[in-house]
Write a structure and sequence with these properties.
This protein is of the alpha/beta class and 249 residues long. Strands 1-2-3-5-4 form a 5-stranded mixed sheet. Helix 4 crosses helix 5. The chain binds zinc ion (ZN). Zinc ion (ZN) binds next to helix 4 and helix 5.
Length: 249
Amino acid sequence: MSRVLTLLAVGLWATTGWSQNWVDEKTIGIYVFHSEFPLRDIEPLVVELGELQKDIESTLDLTCSDRKIEVHLFSSGWRFNRYIQANVPDGAGRRALFVAGANVGKVYAYRHRDFETDMRHEMTHALLHNALPYVPLWLDEGLAEYFEVPAPLRAEKRTRQDGLGGLLNQRIAPLAELEAKRKLSEFAGKEYRDARCWVHFLLHGPPESHAALEEFLTTIPTGREPTPLSVSLQRRLPDVEERFQKHFR
Ligand SMILES: [Zn+2]
């Protein structure tokens, strides 16, 4: 867009006035909701989000701080995109997002068929960042993929995205390969799936793998650099690749 057009657009913006009218604004526990539709429409999900924190804390042996999480809910993808482009331009093009902040975490999502999955996914990021000073990208996404599934289905090894053939004959990236990815742009569908597989192995695989994850998560808040999980897993389970394959066979 030319500079003149840009100025014109900004001018129009100013005169037409983008005003965000939230239909429902409510604080429930640590969640501060700003919603374009009544929250009573999604009451079971709101209750589930309270459970999600307890699930994350008990599964990972973490304690989430009571730092507030602002949750912005939109009635359509169009309205969501318009808001994100104006207020969080870096998040443009995404379907839902979490933005970490110093004092408050912010989640943005809109109602559509997979709204509940998106909400559990982004809220997992928000809660993890309330519990830990940082979370490596692959683990952050792997855990969000794991917890985005309704609680009774989380232990299942394959998900919808794995297709009818499940995980058989598919190449899952070695953990070190995922650890090397530092940008979200390096994550596509396959990387999300692979990160979820490794998280599943860490949580439901041999006891040594769960112990490695626990050691990793308890080291992060100390300020010491945790040993990469690919390394500590290999130490605890010299045949980790074989055990990983066997876990999903
Ligand atoms: Zn994510």
